[in-house]
Specification:
The structure is a single chain. The protein is an alpha+beta fold. Among the domains are: about 125-260, 3-Layer(aba) Sandwich (Rossmann fold); about 270-280 and about 320-450, Probable inorganic polyphosphate/atp-NAD kinase, domain 2 (Tumour Suppressor Smad4), CATH 2.60.200. The protein is built from 12 helices and 23 strands. It has helices spanning about 1-10, 35-45, 80-85, 145-160, 170, 175-180, 185-190, 215-220, 250-260, 375, 460-470, 490; strands at about 100, 105, 125, 135-140, 165-170, 190-195, 205-210, 230-235, 260-265, 270-275, 280, 285-290, 320-330, 330-335, 345-350, 350-365, 390-395, 405, 410-415, 425-430, 430-435, 440-445, 450-455. The strands form 5 sheets. Strands 10, 13, 14, 15, 16, 17, 18, 19, 20, 21 and 22 form an 11-stranded antiparallel β-sheet that branches. It has a 5-stranded parallel β-sheet with strand order 6-5-4-7-8, with helices on both faces. A 3-stranded antiparallel β-sheet has the order 3-9-23. A hairpin with a 2-residue loop joins strand 15 (about 345-350) and strand 16 (about 350-365).
């Protein structure tokens, strides 16, 4: 950390061990020119760790064709030099990253806990450090049409590719598989597991999904830490997240095993449900956090408000009991449940009260989930590569409450308002629905474990094709073309 600060905070050139002579004039031979200082500054920053700077996606320095290794770029920025590289189309996507520099002396402070690194989407390619061996196959259950594709895929992976295939025990226990004698030899070689009982998160190299979007959501829920690459075949009803067609599965799977496939890093949300975190004061509309670190007043008095905002730093992450912690790929939905009253919850961002949500509820979604429930509630659709968190109200009681997008990495917290008439309910990707009472809270932030989804073509083409095919985005009947001899009446008025 000290080396980063020293190399980014100033442009002072390196000095020899002998004390230099005093500089008597600007033309002294011991004083280095601004050109030489810039050259040494660039050399210092480029010799840092590969993860501490933004260069080309492959991490190589770029030089103009025919330029000497130590020569100074003639008036061109690094981005302009990258455009002339014959190796790869180079994009510079600058974001809040520790080694981002602004001008000759300003830079963002080094932050080893940064959530993600914004990079050129074209550089997101899958590679294998070692050849994959263990493959997890997820099949949509209660769908008899997937039995034959499942058997074909397992036979291909076991017999032709020599892979060790993992499947869920209830899938193998299907009657259509247990009574099939032709599949008996393959069935005996499958490794089975039970959800919630067996941990397979550390022994899977690749995930293959057969079904719709629900199969990919289910695969994500099985891995609460690092997620292996996911290859999803469209054999379900919607298929927004499943770009591959099963007709060419042998060719597509073989390409993935060889590596160098495009991937989309789908960010997830890290969610915590904390019970009994808030201690009510007994007065309507007043509450304070336990263990506020000196921010709260003694004697049970609530923190003073200023323009509706509570003082910063009034939260304590150690207070309360964490009853649930999980990774969510699509969205966290807070709604009013079976009650006929409006839902009334408070929304905090990094410990500060932002607003109260009165309506049917609120949706906190990832960019992947922006095309799901959030899109139906009126939110914008965001590409999965955009680092962001979406907050979308569900039928709000205020017409000016529009959906908002906040930066990835901030912590959102949802609590039941003190004057709420009823409790609220929360669900995570449509699962594990539970009730939230007074004193409970839901903490949401961006997870550092995204889902690497393998693309059929590339992450831009696949997403827009899904918009067109699944959501019929911008599909309309086109206007008829005017005849060549017919002109607009406005052109002939004068």
């Amino acid at each position: 950390m000290e080396s980063q600060e020293s190399s980014c905070s100033s442009a002072t050139p390196e000095r020899s061990s002998n004390p230099p002579e005093p500089v008597r004039s600007s033309t002294s031979k011991h004083r280095k020119s601004p050109k030489r200082r810039r050259e040494e500054k660039r050399s210092q920053c480029h010799h840092q760790d590969d993860q501490e700077h933004l260069l080309l996606p492959d991490g190589e320095q770029i030089r103009l064709p025919g330029q000497h290794e130590h020569s100074e770029p003639s008036g061109s920025s690094t981005a302009e030099m990258a455009e002339t590289s014959p190796k790869r189309r180079a994009h510079f996507l600058h974001g809040p990253y520790p080694a981002t520099h602004f001008g000759p002396k300003a830079c963002i402070l080094p932050n080893p806990t940064s959530v993600m690194h914004i990079q050129d989407p074209a550089s997101q390619r899958l590679t294998w450090n070692k050849p994959p061996v263990n493959v997890l196959v997820i099949r949509k259950i209660r769908d008899e049409s997937l039995v034959e594709p499942f058997k074909e895929l397992c036979h291909f992976l076991v017999e032709e590719k020599g892979m060790l295939v993992f499947v869920e025990r209830r899938v193998v226990a299907d009657v259509s598989l247990t009574t099939d004698e032709t599949f008996a030899s393959i069935r005996k070689q499958l490794c089975t597991f039970r959800e919630g009982y067996d941990d397979i998160s550390h022994c899977i190299d690749l995930i293959i999904c057969l079904g719709g979007d629900g199969t990919l959501l289910y695969a994500s829920s099985l891995f609460q830490g690092s997620v292996p690459p996911v290859m999803a075949f469209h054999l379900g009803s919607l298929g927004f997240l499943t770009p591959f067609k099963f007709e060419s599965y042998k060719t597509e799977v073989a390409k993935v095993f060889e590596g160098n496939a495009a991937i989309t890093l789908r960010s997830r949300l890290k969610v915590k449900v904390v019970k009994d975190m808030l201690q009510r004061t007994g007065q309507p509309g007043q509450q304070q956090y336990q263990g506020s670190g000196g921010q709260g007043q003694a004697g049970g008095q609530p923190d003073t408000e200023h323009n509706g905002l509570l003082p910063h730093g009034h939260t304590n992450s150690e207070a309360g009991n964490i009853t649930l912690q999980m990774q969510v790929l699509n969205e966290v939905v807070v709604d009013r449940g079976p009650s006929s009253y409006l839902s009334n919850v408070d929304l905090y961002l990094d410990g500060r009260l932002i607003t109260s949500v009165q309506g049917d509820g609120v949706i906190v979604s990832t960019p992947t989930g922006s095309t799901a429930y959030a899109a139906a509630a009126g939110a914008s659709m965001i590409h999965p590569n955009v680092p962001a968190i979406m907050v979308t109200p569900i039928c709000p009681h205020s017409l000016s409450f529009r959906p908002i997008v906040v930066p990835a990495g901030v912590e959102l917290m949802i609590t039941l308002s003190p004057d709420a008439r009823n409790t609220c309910w929360v669900s995570f990707d449509g699962r594990k629905r539970q009730e939230i009472s007074h004193g409970d809270c839901i903490k949401i932030t961006t997870s550092c474990y995204p889902v690497p989804s393998i693309c059929c073509h590339d992450l831009v083409y696949d997403w827009f094709e899904s918009l067109a095919q699944c959501l019929h985005w911008n599909v309309r009947k086109k206007q008829a073309r005017l005849a060549d001899d017919v002109s607009d009446s406005s052109d002939t008025e004068n």
